[in-house]
Amino acid sequence: MESLLPPVPRTPEHVSAYWHGLTHPRFPFKMCPDNLCSGHGAMRLRLLSATMALCLFVSPLFAGESSPAVKLAVAPKYPTLTLAGRVYGQVTVRVTIDRAGAVKDATVTEGHPMLREAALVAAQQWKFAESLLPKRVATLKFSFVILPEDSQVASQTVFLPPMGIEIRQRPAKPAVEDDEDGEFHPDPHPISKT
Q1: β-sheet bridge partners, residue 110
Q2: 4, 20, 147, 150 - which has most CB atoms within 10 Å?
């Protein structure tokens, strides 16, 4: 079945004939300014204007979801209780950014309940590049990693571009008391002493 649309020009001569309204054996139609409002010319004009509108108006909407440039990234402090309990994992925070680059709203979308508050407090302190858009949205990821007890490094923070931070922490060694024999005896709870 033959297409109702004219064939697509493939060579420079055909393109020239196509846009300037000259006739060509393969392109027997005429596309000139007086023909823009009817037939194939009108359809092409509508397609062109629709494409331009799509590019101009839709791209800023997606730009709000893109990764804005980070000016200040704040790492959360590994909560002491969660570190002692060997709690680790990733927390995802969705932030809303204003024109000036400040975080206006932050919401935890997923992550361990004991790590959420630390990630949320840190996310609210982030700063981003200014923008012409009134509101942008970004997703920040905070990974809490427990280092082995024999690790040479006690604490380390790594920025993972574009929007991630990994907090690596070695847990504190438990307090132990040795008696005179050199044997281990756990510290009794002060309330249990009678």
Answers
A1: 92
A2: 147
